[in-house]
Amino acid sequence: MRKQNGVGWLFASPYLLYAILFFAIPLVWSFYLSTTDWNLISPEYNFKGITNYIDVFRSPGVQAALLVTFKFMAVFVPLVIVMSMIVAAIVHGLPKFKGIFLIGFFLPYLASGVVSSFIVKGLLSYNSPLNTTLRGKFGMDIDWLGSPFAALCVVAVIIAWKFTGYYALILTSGFESINAEIYEAAAIDGANAWQRFFKITLPLLYPAIYTVIILSIGVTFGIFTEVYQLTGGGPDYATNTWQMEIFTQAFKNLQAGYASAVAIVASVVTFLSIFVIRKLLEMWGKRNGWV
Amino acid sequence: MKYERGDIMKKKLNKVVSLVVAATVSVSVLAGCSKGDKKDSDKNGVTTIEFWAAPNPPQQAYWKEMAKEFEKENPKININVSAIKESPSSEASIQSAIAGKSAPTMSENINRGFAAQLAESKALVPLNEIEGWEDILTNRNMTETVEPWEFSDGNQYVLPIYSNPMLFGWRLDILKELGINEAPKTYSEMLEATKRLKAKYPDKFLWAKPDLADPTAWKRWFDFFMLYDAASEGNNFIEGNKLVADDKAGLQVLTFMDDLRKENAYLLKTVTDPFETGVGIFTDIGPWTLTYWEEKFPKMVYGETFTLAAPPVPDNMNTENVRTFADTKGLVIYASATDQQKHAAMKFISWVYSNPEHDLKWLEQTNLPPARDDLAENEAFTTFFSENPALQPYANAVPFGIPSIDNPKYNELQTFIGQHAVNPIVKGKNTPKNGWNDMKKAIEGGL
Q1: Segment B22-31, tens digit of pLDDT
Q2: Which among A34, A211, B43, B343 is least buried, having the fewest CB atoms inside 10 angstroms?
Q3: pLDDT at B26
């Protein structure tokens, strides 16, 4: 038993070391910084106690980040689940070249956020063909990045586009693991398409959906590039995410100590949110007998 | 027997694992604790300095060329020129490098506000304390230019490279269609131009610029400060830790911006090349735009398609010698450099600026007016400007350029100008008087 433990530790040691160096030490360091007034470049670190944390809870930027993250979650998570589910279902139904199609859908995940944001900015420009047509043919003059809800939706859609292929990969593997005979048996028993989906597909796909939901919720806490490039957190904090707030405070306002406090609060909120959502998903699974 | 072999194997394995873990941890900890101490010079006595140039290809090309020529004459100094990374911004890259103890020896592209942040954190060398500083000022003929760059502690942390007074561009072709033959100079002339524009072209805008609704600090340099510097005749906005803004001028600017809004003069939506496509007929323009247009919009011809003018001023104000914001950037030496590197850097700077031809080359390659006192008189430059008439208005405006505020909190403070004054006013969400007062309150709180 002890020998097995030793081998286990041996195999785990590279990751443990990695985790200590790149997660544990920075976390402790970040917590220390959050109690100082360090400005990122000064050699001076003056102890401020919990002052930074008090300021965090009073900050309109942080309050916005908290709210905006949940708003993103409400738009992005259902959107990306539906989109990746559709892609996975289409790919699953293909007779050939499933891998090639999956790679195709996966490519946006590898695309640079800066480049995709730049392209989207051009597409949504006032004088783009899209907006010219909308104004000319339908009398619609939409301020895509200047109105709070539209800006939030634009960012959510870009990120959903980026992650759809990745999540579709996970869901496709879930689809592939469902035995076709179950559908045949259900069809013989007279189950229609909806019944087959809700009684067979959804329960058997539950582990994959669970994974995708948790991953996508994690994504909403880390949104930065698209917001930085497209809206800068605006208009009026409508797209001010946690990462945007941390960046603004640390690198623009040179308040690295305060930004560390924001980061610590953000990580606690992230942890709690994912914990609660996990529990809710498990309850959902158990209630329906899928787990 | 089997047990013994397993035991020995286990002991060996433990040893190997312990060694690997110990070595890795030691190396990592030592690397983490390293202060990144730099050697003064290599065994051949060659001092290497790292120079971060602006992320603008013509500037990089200029500095690489200068470094190459300098190295030929000074084989004991090696200059590595590379572009400042913009991930996610050049300021953030410099801050990260300083925090990570990997700052270069020197860099360019530093504005006064950012320099104030760096100087306050003792990240910069007071250039006036390094031997050769006075010679540079004399040789480059920039004694007067450098005066406003003195910081509150009496030191000079930045050597200004260029001083670029910002001007407003007007679509002259469209103005002429409206029956206006020259760029409006006063607020009422501009409002009249807006009325005529909206009457003839309801789909066009006077000022098509989403930045007006964006609180990002630096964006205020190119709208609010251009108008404020003109209206206040260059009155300071913040001095040290005190807000000294001219209330009358500030209110005039905001009221004017509000009047433009009432005339539906703004397009605040994201828009591509609005000035070039004629969606908007008025915008801030720097000399770099002219270089860009030569390649991308050759139909933009000075004196035909567009013209350049100083910012508009309130009615009844003198429309000559109008002040404007000057986008001025300079060169700094970082405190983390060794003494030998600092002196080598100073030698390089001194070499570059001892020859006016180098400044002329800079002007030719970048279109950015060198920060010199003799720009309007020195024949080397006057010939250049006569051959490049679109750049002449910039040279003329150099004496009227007002640099950015030098408060270390400039970013936060300028964000307040957007959040409380400019942004809500162009959107019609606040009155000029309330906006000005809200902004003052926020800035005074921030100071």
Answers
A1: 444 444 444 4
A2: B43
A3: 42
The phi and psi torsions of B53 (rounded to 5 degrees) equal -95, 165
Of A21, A144, A254, the CB nearest to B270: A144
Return the pLDDT at B30.
Answer: 40
Tell me which H or E stretch contains B411. helix B410-416
Residue B80 has a CB neighbour count (10 Å cut-off) of 13
8 Å CB contact of A253 and B21: no
The predicted structure's pLDDT at residue A2: 62
Let me know if A224 is exposed, middle or buried by CB neighbors in 10 A (0-12, 13-18, 19+): middle
- Structure-token pair, residue B332: 């700094």
Gap from B400 CA to chain A (nearest CA, Å): 29
The whole-model pTM stands at 0.80
Mention every residue, 6+ apart, whose C-beta is less than 8 A from residue A225: A113, A114, A117, B88
CA distance A68 to A243: 11
Tell me the pLDDT tens digit for each residue of B55-66: 888 899 999 999
- Are A76 and A88 spatial neighbours (Cβ–Cβ below 8 Å)? no
Q: How far apart are the first and last CA of chain B?
A: 79
Q: Which residue, among B61, B52, B40, B134, has the nearest Cα to B331 in the 3D structure?
A: B52
Q: Which of A50-54, A71-75, B87-91, B350-354 shows the lowest per-residue confidence on average (mean pLDDT)?
A: B87-91
Test mutation, A41, A123, A230, A244, chain B, max B CBs within 10 A: A41
